[in-house]
Amino acid sequence: MNRRHPLASFCFYAMLIGGALIMLLPLAWMLLTSLKTYPEILSQPPAWLPADPQWENYRTVWDGFAYYRLFLNSCFVSGMVIAGTVLTCCPAAYAFAYCEVRHKALLFALLLSTLMLPAQVTVIPLFKAFAALGWVDTYLPLIVPAWLGGNVFGIFLLRQFFLTIPKSFIEAARLDGASEWTILWRLIVPMSLPAVLTVVIFTFLWSWNDLFNPLIYLQSEELVTLPVGLLYFIARAEQLTGGSIGQQPWHLVMTLATVMILPVIVVFAIVQRRFVEGVAAGGVKG
Amino acid sequence: MNIRRADQFTFWLFAGPALAGFVAFSLWPMLYSLWLSFCQYEVISPPRFIGLRNYIHLFYYDAAFWPSVKVTLMFTLVQVPLSIIAALAFALLLNQPVRARGFWRAIYFLPSILPQAAYAVIFGYIFQGDGGLLNRLLALVGIEGQPWTMSSDWALPVLIAMSLWAFGYPMVIFLAGLQNVPRELHEAAHIDGAGAGARFRHITLPLLSPVMFFNLIMGVIAALKVFDLAYAFSVTQNMPPGGPARATLFYGLNLYQQAFGFFHMGLASAMAWLLFLFVMVVTVINFRFSRRWVHYEN
Fold first, then answer.
1. What is the pTM of this model?
2. Which of A124, A196, B64, B281 has the largest CB neighbor count within 10 A?
3. What would the pLDDT profile of A183-199 be if each residue is shown by its tens digit?
4. CB-CB: which of B15, B33, B122 is closest to A124?
C-alpha cells in the first residue's frame, strides 16, 4: 500500500502542485499588480510583470489615501469584538457545561437555533432599533452584540471542550474555596487554550472580513473598515476615470486588497495547524 | 441544597449576558421582522399593517423577486455539488502519504479564510474583458476571450468559479472523516481482490456519508445567503448591484437593495422571512432524505 509506482507518484505530485498553483494564482496576480505603475496597467495588453517593483504604491495608499486610518478602524473593531466574545462566551459555556438548572437543555437548544437564523432576518429591526438609539454611524452596532455572547458557535465550541475536563478538577477547586469566577479563568480557560484560540481566530476572521454589517451601519468615510473602504475607493476611482473599467487604477486597488488580506495570512500562518484541526473537530463532532 | 442554589446564581450570572443577547439580537428582531413583513414600512412614517400585501406583491408583481430566486437557486445547485466534489477530491489527495501534509493543507485552505470582498475584486480584474488575466492566458493558446463580467450569460458562472476557490472548510472536514476510516477494512478488501474504485465506492463513501451530509447542509445554507461576494463584484464592475441585467442579483443582494437602497423595509422583511422559511424547509428535507443515504456507525 505504501509504495507507489513512479508514474502514479508523478501524477500525484503533478496534481498536488498544480492544484496549489491554481489556489495561489489570484493572490500572486494581486501582488504583482500591486507593484506595477499606472502606465503598465494602462498599456494594451497590460504588462505581465512590473518592470521595476513599485513599493511606493503601498506608501501612496497608506499615507496618501489615509489607509492607515481604515486599517486602525478594522483593528479596533476586530479587537473589541474579540475581547467581548471571549469575555462573555467563556462564562456562558461554563454555565452550560457545569451548572445544573432547570430547562438548561432547552435554553441551550434555543441559543443554538440562532445559528440557522440568516442575518437578513434580524437586520431590519436591529437597524431600526440602533437608529432610534442614535447608534448608526458608530461602532456600537458592530461591537455591542459581541459583548452579549453574540458568537453562539463559540459558546458551542467552548462548551464541547469544557465537557472533556474531568469534573473532579472543579470539585477540588470548590473545596479549596475558589469562587466559580476564579475556577473559570484560572483553571478551566488555561486548560482550554486551544479551543479559546480557535474561537478567537474565528471571531477575528468573521469580523475582519465582514462587509455586510459595516456597510449598513457605518457611513462616514473616516469610520469605515477595510472591506467597505476598498469598495469606496473603487467607486470613487470609477467616477474619476469616467466609469471605464480599463482605466481603473488597478495597481492601487490591488495594493489595498493586499493590505487588507495580509494580516489574515499572517495570523493564519502562525496558528494554521491548530485552527484547521479545530475546524475539523467541530465538523466531525457536530 | 446549597450547591444547587449556588448553581442557579452562577448560571444566570455567567450565561446572563449571552441569554440577554439572544433575546435582544435574535429573538426580538426575528419576531419584530415577522410583524414588519405584514406592514408597509418605508422608514419615514411608522409601520402600517397591510396584511399579506407584501407577500402578494413579491409573488405576483415584483420584477426583481423571481429573477433573484432563480439566480440564487442556480448558484446553489451548481456551486454546492462542485465545491463538495473539489473538497472531496483534494481531501483524498491529501490523505495519501505525502511529505509536509500540513503545508499543502494550509495552501488549499488559505483562500477560504480570505475576505470575499477582496476575492470579488481580484477575480473581477482577472475576468475583466479587455486585458484581464484569463483572456490573455486564453490568447496564448489561441482561444478568443469573452467580456466575461459584462455578459449576462457569463457573469453568474464567473461568480460560481470564484467561489470554487473556497472549499477549505468541507475539505478539512472530509480529511478528518477520512482519517476515521479504519485501515483494516481497506486492507481486508484489498486481499479479497477489490480494486481502488470498488473500495472507494463501498468502504470510503459510506463511512464518509455523515460528514458529506454535514458539508451539504452547511454548503446549501451558505449558498442561499451569499451577499459579500455579489455586492463587491457589482461595485468592482461599476454596475448597479446585481448587474449585468440582474444576472447576479442574488436573493441576499436583492433584499439589501429593497431594505437599504429603496427603504422598502416591510417588503424586505417579507423577503427575509421567506428566506428563513426556505432555509428551514431545505434543512428538514435534507434530514429526511439523509436517512436513505447517510450511514451512521452504531
1. 0.90
2. A124
3. 999 999 999 888 899 89
4. B33
